[in-house]
Amino acid sequence: FYEQYLSEVKYFKDEKRLHEIVEIFLQGFFPLNNENQQQEELNFEQFHHILQENPSVFQSLYLISIPDQDNEDDEQTIWFKRWWMYIKNNTNRIAFLILYILISIALIIYVIIYHVIILEKHSVPQVIARIGGMLVNFNYALAVSLMLKQTMTIIRRLYYLRIFIPVDDHIDAHRFVGTMLFISAMIHSLAYALNFAINLNGHSWFSLMFTTAAEIGWVSHSATITGVILFVLLIIMVICSFQCIRQRSGCYQLFRYTHYLFWPIFILLVLHAPNFWKWAIGPMVLFCFEKIYLFKRYLPKYGRTKLISIRIEDEHVLSLMIEKPSNFNFHVGEYINICLPNIVRNEWHPFTICSSPERKDILRLTIMKKQNWTRKIYEHFSKEQNSDDNDMAEITVDNLNNKSETNSRNLLVYPREITFTDKQKDAIACIEGPFSTCTSYIFDCEHVVLVGAGIGITPYISALESLIYQLREQRCKCSRCGTMNYTQSVLKNQKLKKIDLIWVNRDIGNVSWFRNILDEFEAEQESYLASTTPQERTNSQEQRSRYLDIHLYCTSIRSNEQTMLGNLPYNLVANMYEVI
Ligand SMILES: Cc1cc2nc3c(=O)[nH]c(=O)nc-3n(C[C@H](O)[C@H](O)[C@H](O)COP(=O)(O)OP(=O)(O)OC[C@H]3O[C@@H](n4cnc5c(N)ncnc54)[C@H](O)[C@@H]3O)c2cc1C
């Protein structure tokens, strides 16, 4: 292992030096015995003893990462095997992509046959323009359909629909279709511009392009004018949708508002092309129904509610405890849009519900402070709490009993809980949704591997809390001896048998956000495992193994470790010299 590890470190490229150093390690770990012979074996106790005696060696060793041994296998895997695996895992995606391509080709062929054979128009630019126009109709209808969030939520909730429809890709598909729409519109416009340039018919090219001189269009010959406006609107919309703008802090609202241009684009397209409405009417009616349905966000039983309390977890994160409206129901992993109108008016932001659906009273959101809305909310509550004249009902400091020196400074301040009174205006909240995500399928799988980074863990926390509730519901206490038992084997009746939760964090401190839930789950799991009889445990592999395994990874290293990591090869050698 060391030989392989060191051979990858650039300092030890010289073979001789490498062997010399490996020899030093061997001498360090396999010292000479009483007969002056080098030991050949090292048991764990001896290994542990050496490390205990030499903390500096231990410090150097624990920073060594094991080389990626899978690489070798990967290289050996032949490309078509990988392709086959990809196709197997993405069958429905590929099927939908092929369907999309086939429909597009069919539409192109239809336009060619209709214009060249039936209408006997042989102008190539005109036929190309018509093809572009037809593809605009198709892609517009599809782009709107892909953003029917309620419909997507329904599809996700219906098992047999979602295994055929790749609903998890609807946003990616929307982006792709939007790009195709833009390309089709460009083809349509450029082909018409070329057609005008070829057939001037006594007009200037400018008058044909920018006035009604060309006399085309079914509403007062306005197709050229509406076409130019559409062209400009589409360009604005596309530019503001670029990832570099959309994901830039503070620019999301620009993306959002320019996307509302699809309404004027819809109206202009109806005026521009006589057949457009036939394509768009279905998706647009559904879209309007969804929008009307979502107005329930202002109704007290569905969306208008209030904050019960908030908890400032640390200097970046806060949790909102929201009163659950009586008719609001959701599934694990779903998210809502929230607006706090008395703090930031008319701005809605999506957050995953990280409490479980079994909790009847509360919805919990955990929010990480970014640059705009989230920062305003965080600062509003932390300022309000800090000011002396605030009228918050209760402030509690929940000490996490962590003795570490670095944390104890923070723990005097965090987490802080603020409970709201009924009179407080800033506690008013409106919620819209719920909308689904792929986390909803957790309970349909036997073994799930949940991977979350930082605050991205929130959907899984909801699932864990839900499992705690399910376990607790089946708990019963023996009236004689008081031991805890479970009425039936929860794990046996449920499809989900095993969860591996991988949580990648910058800092170990982030664990405090959800520490209570993780602790509760551990305790519940221990109690459940302890209650299964030894007989059961040996018989059933599933029951013997832990239900949840949490794998925590911290990506940031403390500055003192950073220097150490850089000097690692030298440190190792120096420390081993010390040992021998
Ligand atoms: C389905 C979903 C679930 C989410 N769940 C959580 C969660 O549980 N906890 C959490 O802390 N964060 C969550 N987020 C991210 C959260 O919505 C954004 O961090 C928040 O909206 C940023 O607001 P801001 O004005 O402070 O952002 P800015 O500082 O302006 O921007 C920061 C980033 O957030 C993005 N963003 C800004 N506004 C929105 C918006 N309305 N919709 C989508 N993205 C936006 C921007 O593109 C940018 O990349 C979730 C996002 C989505 C899409």
Polypeptide structure, described:
It is found in: Membrane. Keywords: Membrane, Oxidoreductase, Transmembrane, Transmembrane helix. One of its GO terms (molecular function) is superoxide-generating NAD(P)H oxidase activity. This is FAD-binding FR-type domain-containing protein. It is a multi-pass membrane protein. By secondary structure, the chain is α+β, with helices and mostly antiparallel strands. The protein has four domains: 83 residues, no CATH class; 206 residues; 137 residues, Translation factors (Elongation Factor Tu (Ef-tu), domain 3, Beta Barrel), CATH 2.40.30; 120 residues, Nucleotide-binding domain of ferredoxin-NADP reductase (FNR) module (Rossmann fold). 52% of the residues lie in helices and 13% in strands. It has 26 helices and 13 strands. Strands 1, 2, 3, 4, 5, 6, 7 and 8 form an eight-stranded antiparallel sheet that branches. Helix 11 runs antiparallel to helix 13 and helix 13 runs antiparallel to helix 16. The protein starts with a helix and ends with a helix. The structure holds flavin-adenine dinucleotide (FAD). The site of flavin-adenine dinucleotide has 21 residues, from strand 4, strand 5 and helix 18.
